[in-house]
Protein backbone atom coordinates (compact mmCIF):
# COMPACT_ATOMS: atom_id res chain seq x y z
CA UNK A 1 0.00 0.00 0.00
CA UNK A 2 1.32 3.41 -0.97
CA UNK A 3 1.30 6.35 1.44
CA UNK A 4 1.40 9.71 -0.31
CA UNK A 5 1.68 13.04 1.48
CA UNK A 6 -0.78 15.57 0.06
CA UNK A 7 -0.30 18.32 2.65
CA UNK A 8 2.44 19.11 5.12
CA UNK A 9 3.35 21.87 7.56
CA UNK A 10 5.50 21.92 10.67
CA UNK A 11 2.78 20.35 12.83
CA UNK A 12 0.18 19.05 10.39
CA UNK A 13 0.15 16.39 7.66
CA UNK A 14 -2.35 14.62 5.40
CA UNK A 15 -1.56 11.20 3.94
CA UNK A 16 -3.58 9.23 1.42
CA UNK A 17 -3.16 5.48 1.75
CA UNK A 18 -4.16 3.35 -1.20
CA UNK A 19 -3.10 2.12 -4.63
CA UNK A 20 -2.56 -1.29 -3.02
CA UNK A 21 -1.15 -3.53 -5.76
CA UNK A 22 -1.64 -6.60 -3.54
CA UNK A 23 -5.39 -6.20 -3.09
CA UNK A 24 -7.65 -8.86 -4.64
CA UNK A 25 -8.62 -8.09 -8.23
CA UNK A 26 -12.35 -8.19 -7.49
CA UNK A 27 -12.10 -5.57 -4.72
CA UNK A 28 -12.49 -1.92 -5.74
CA UNK A 29 -9.62 0.39 -4.93
CA UNK A 30 -10.18 2.85 -2.10
CA UNK A 31 -8.43 5.88 -0.63
CA UNK A 32 -7.96 6.01 3.11
CA UNK A 33 -6.72 9.19 4.80
CA UNK A 34 -4.60 9.87 7.86
CA UNK A 35 -4.44 13.34 9.40
CA UNK A 36 -1.81 14.04 12.03
CA UNK A 37 -1.82 17.33 13.92
CA UNK A 38 0.73 17.82 16.68
CA UNK A 39 0.78 14.47 18.52
CA UNK A 40 -2.71 13.28 17.62
CA UNK A 41 -4.04 11.49 14.54
CA UNK A 42 -7.35 10.49 12.94
CA UNK A 43 -8.06 7.91 10.24
CA UNK A 44 -10.79 8.85 7.75
CA UNK A 45 -12.75 5.95 6.22
CA UNK A 46 -10.35 3.22 7.44
CA UNK A 47 -11.38 0.78 4.71
CA UNK A 48 -12.48 -2.81 4.30
CA UNK A 49 -11.46 -5.74 6.45
CA UNK A 50 -9.15 -7.01 3.70
CA UNK A 51 -7.07 -3.79 3.96
CA UNK A 52 -6.45 -3.84 7.68
CA UNK A 53 -2.97 -5.39 7.61
CA UNK A 54 -1.49 -3.12 4.91
CA UNK A 55 -3.23 -0.11 6.46
CA UNK A 56 -1.79 -0.84 9.89
CA UNK A 57 1.70 -1.39 8.49
CA UNK A 58 1.56 1.87 6.51
CA UNK A 59 0.23 3.93 9.40
CA UNK A 60 2.88 2.70 11.81
CA UNK A 61 5.56 4.17 9.54
CA UNK A 62 4.17 7.63 10.31
CA UNK A 63 2.50 7.56 13.74
CA UNK A 64 2.34 5.34 16.79
CA UNK A 65 -0.89 3.56 17.67
CA UNK A 66 -1.14 5.66 20.83
CA UNK A 67 -1.39 8.78 18.67
CA UNK A 68 -4.39 7.47 16.72
CA UNK A 69 -7.21 8.60 18.99
CA UNK A 70 -10.02 8.86 16.47
CA UNK A 71 -11.65 7.14 13.52
CA UNK A 72 -14.20 8.60 11.13
CA UNK A 73 -16.67 6.76 8.88
CA UNK A 74 -18.50 8.86 6.31
CA UNK A 75 -21.26 6.24 6.04
CA UNK A 76 -21.97 2.53 6.54
CA UNK A 77 -20.60 0.80 3.44
CA UNK A 78 -18.20 -2.15 3.96
CA UNK A 79 -15.44 -0.55 1.86
CA UNK A 80 -15.58 2.33 4.35
CA UNK A 81 -15.60 0.62 7.73
CA UNK A 82 -15.80 -3.21 7.66
CA UNK A 83 -12.28 -3.25 9.19
CA UNK A 84 -13.78 -1.82 12.39
CA UNK A 85 -13.66 -5.11 14.32
CA UNK A 86 -9.88 -5.29 13.85
CA UNK A 87 -9.30 -1.61 14.67
CA UNK A 88 -11.39 -2.26 17.78
CA UNK A 89 -8.64 -4.59 19.00
CA UNK A 90 -5.74 -2.39 17.84
CA UNK A 91 -7.17 0.91 19.15
CA UNK A 92 -9.32 0.00 22.17
CA UNK A 93 -9.28 3.56 23.56
CA UNK A 94 -10.26 5.28 20.29
CA UNK A 95 -13.52 6.99 19.39
CA UNK A 96 -15.40 6.46 16.13
CA UNK A 97 -17.27 9.47 14.74
CA UNK A 98 -19.94 8.41 12.26
CA UNK A 99 -23.54 9.32 11.29
CA UNK A 100 -26.08 8.70 14.03
CA UNK A 101 -28.30 7.05 11.42
CA UNK A 102 -25.91 4.14 10.87
CA UNK A 103 -24.84 3.26 14.40
CA UNK A 104 -26.96 0.10 14.58
CA UNK A 105 -25.58 -1.05 11.22
CA UNK A 106 -21.92 -0.13 11.75
CA UNK A 107 -21.83 -1.98 15.07
CA UNK A 108 -22.35 -5.22 13.10
CA UNK A 109 -18.71 -4.94 12.00
CA UNK A 110 -17.61 -5.41 15.62
CA UNK A 111 -17.11 -2.80 18.32
CA UNK A 112 -16.47 -3.96 21.86
CA UNK A 113 -13.92 -1.35 22.89
CA UNK A 114 -14.03 1.69 20.60
CA UNK A 115 -16.68 4.22 21.62
CA UNK A 116 -19.24 5.47 19.08
CA UNK A 117 -19.79 9.23 18.84
CA UNK A 118 -22.82 9.83 16.61
CA UNK A 119 -22.75 12.84 14.29
CA UNK A 120 -26.00 14.79 14.14
CA UNK A 121 -27.57 15.46 10.75
CA UNK A 122 -26.41 19.08 10.78
CA UNK A 123 -22.77 18.06 11.23
CA UNK A 124 -20.33 19.31 13.82
CA UNK A 125 -16.66 19.74 14.68
CA UNK A 126 -13.85 17.81 16.29
CA UNK A 127 -10.46 19.01 17.51
CA UNK A 128 -7.45 16.90 16.50
CA UNK A 129 -4.16 18.19 17.84
CA UNK A 130 -3.94 21.85 16.84
CA UNK A 131 -6.64 21.81 14.15
CA UNK A 132 -10.43 21.68 14.20
CA UNK A 133 -12.09 19.51 11.57
CA UNK A 134 -15.66 20.06 10.38
CA UNK A 135 -18.16 17.33 9.55
CA UNK A 136 -19.97 18.64 6.47
CA UNK A 137 -23.40 17.15 5.67
CA UNK A 138 -23.52 15.27 2.36
CA UNK A 139 -26.73 13.33 2.87
CA UNK A 140 -28.02 11.17 -0.01
CA UNK A 141 -24.68 11.53 -1.85
CA UNK A 142 -24.84 8.59 -2.02
CA UNK A 143 -25.86 7.42 1.46
CA UNK A 144 -28.91 8.82 3.26
CA UNK A 145 -26.68 9.55 6.26
CA UNK A 146 -23.35 10.80 4.94
CA UNK A 147 -20.64 13.32 5.83
CA UNK A 148 -17.54 14.89 4.34
CA UNK A 149 -14.62 16.19 6.42
CA UNK A 150 -13.25 19.70 5.91
CA UNK A 151 -9.89 20.78 7.26
CA UNK A 152 -9.66 24.61 7.23
CA UNK A 153 -5.97 24.48 8.12
CA UNK A 154 -4.98 22.40 5.09
CA UNK A 155 -7.96 23.60 2.99
CA UNK A 156 -8.79 20.00 2.13
CA UNK A 157 -12.26 18.50 1.73
CA UNK A 158 -12.41 14.72 2.10
CA UNK A 159 -15.47 14.20 -0.10
CA UNK A 160 -16.21 10.49 0.29
CA UNK A 161 -17.95 9.08 -2.78
CA UNK A 162 -18.46 12.53 -4.28
CA UNK A 163 -15.84 12.92 -6.97
CA UNK A 164 -15.14 9.18 -6.99
CA UNK A 165 -13.78 7.52 -10.11
CA UNK A 166 -13.32 3.84 -10.85
CA UNK A 167 -10.28 3.13 -13.01
CA UNK A 168 -8.33 -0.03 -13.70
CA UNK A 169 -4.67 -0.37 -12.83
CA UNK A 170 -2.87 2.26 -10.78
CA UNK A 171 -3.90 5.69 -12.09
CA UNK A 172 -2.04 8.87 -11.13
CA UNK A 173 -2.77 10.32 -7.71
CA UNK A 174 -4.12 13.64 -9.03
CA UNK A 175 -6.52 14.60 -11.82
CA UNK A 176 -4.30 16.03 -14.51
CA UNK A 177 -6.85 16.72 -17.28
CA UNK A 178 -10.42 17.13 -16.08
CA UNK A 179 -12.10 16.67 -19.46
CA UNK A 180 -10.48 13.29 -20.02
CA UNK A 181 -11.25 12.23 -16.43
CA UNK A 182 -15.02 12.68 -16.76
CA UNK A 183 -15.50 9.29 -18.43
CA UNK A 184 -14.26 7.60 -15.25
CA UNK A 185 -16.81 9.44 -13.06
CA UNK A 186 -19.99 9.97 -15.06
CA UNK A 187 -21.81 6.65 -14.75
CA UNK A 188 -20.85 6.28 -11.09
CA UNK A 189 -22.33 9.68 -10.23
CA UNK A 190 -25.48 9.22 -12.31
CA UNK A 191 -26.20 5.87 -10.69
CA UNK A 192 -25.02 6.30 -7.11
CA UNK A 193 -26.12 9.89 -6.46
CA UNK A 194 -29.94 9.62 -6.31
CA UNK A 195 -31.03 13.22 -5.75
CA UNK A 196 -30.47 16.40 -7.75
CA UNK A 197 -31.85 18.41 -4.83
CA UNK A 198 -29.30 16.87 -2.44
CA UNK A 199 -26.57 17.50 -5.00
CA UNK A 200 -27.49 21.19 -5.30
CA UNK A 201 -27.62 21.60 -1.52
CA UNK A 202 -24.15 20.06 -1.19
CA UNK A 203 -22.67 22.25 -3.93
CA UNK A 204 -24.03 25.40 -2.29
CA UNK A 205 -22.60 24.28 1.05
CA UNK A 206 -19.08 23.50 -0.16
CA UNK A 207 -18.84 26.63 -2.31
CA UNK A 208 -18.72 28.53 0.98
CA UNK A 209 -15.49 26.69 1.89
CA UNK A 210 -11.99 27.53 0.75
CA UNK A 211 -10.85 24.30 -0.89
CA UNK A 212 -7.42 23.70 -2.38
CA UNK A 213 -7.78 19.90 -2.53
CA UNK A 214 -10.86 17.68 -2.83
CA UNK A 215 -10.01 14.13 -1.84
CA UNK A 216 -12.57 11.42 -2.67
CA UNK A 217 -12.69 7.85 -1.39
CA UNK A 218 -12.10 6.29 -4.82
CA UNK A 219 -9.79 7.34 -7.61
CA UNK A 220 -7.83 10.49 -8.27
CA UNK A 221 -7.65 13.59 -6.11
CA UNK A 222 -8.67 17.05 -7.31
CA UNK A 223 -6.29 19.94 -6.77
CA UNK A 224 -6.37 23.62 -7.68
CA UNK A 225 -8.60 24.52 -10.62
CA UNK A 226 -9.85 20.94 -11.03
CA UNK A 227 -11.85 21.37 -7.80
CA UNK A 228 -13.95 24.11 -9.41
CA UNK A 229 -14.13 22.17 -12.66
CA UNK A 230 -15.64 19.28 -10.74
CA UNK A 231 -18.21 21.48 -8.98
CA UNK A 232 -19.28 23.03 -12.28
CA UNK A 233 -19.52 19.62 -13.99
CA UNK A 234 -21.42 18.08 -11.08
CA UNK A 235 -23.90 20.99 -11.00
CA UNK A 236 -24.84 20.26 -14.63
CA UNK A 237 -25.05 16.48 -14.24
CA UNK A 238 -28.51 14.93 -13.99
CA UNK A 239 -28.19 12.28 -11.28
CA UNK A 240 -30.42 9.45 -10.07
CA UNK A 241 -30.39 7.62 -13.40
CA UNK A 242 -29.54 3.98 -14.07
CA UNK A 243 -28.90 4.63 -17.76
CA UNK A 244 -25.36 4.33 -19.14
TrEMBL record:
It comes from the Bacteria. Pfam families: ODP (PF19583). Gene3D superfamilies: Ribonuclease Z/Hydroxyacylglutathione hydrolase-like. Signal peptide: none annotated. InterPro entries: Metallo-B-lactamas, ODP_dom, RibonucZ/Hydroxyglut_hydro. Transmembrane segments: none annotated. Residues 29-218 form the Metallo-beta-lactamase domain. PANTHER family: HYDROLASE, METALLO-BETA-LACTAMASE SUPERFAMILY, METALLO-BETA-LACTAMASE DOMAIN-CONTAINING PROTEIN. This is Flavoprotein.
Amino acid sequence: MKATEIYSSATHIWLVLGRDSNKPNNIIDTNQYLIKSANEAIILDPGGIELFSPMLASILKHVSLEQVTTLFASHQDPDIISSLGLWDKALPQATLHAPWLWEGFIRHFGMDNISYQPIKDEGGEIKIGKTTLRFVPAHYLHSSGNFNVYDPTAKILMSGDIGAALEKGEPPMFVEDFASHVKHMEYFHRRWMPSNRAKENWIARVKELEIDIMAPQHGRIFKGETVQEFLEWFSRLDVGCACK
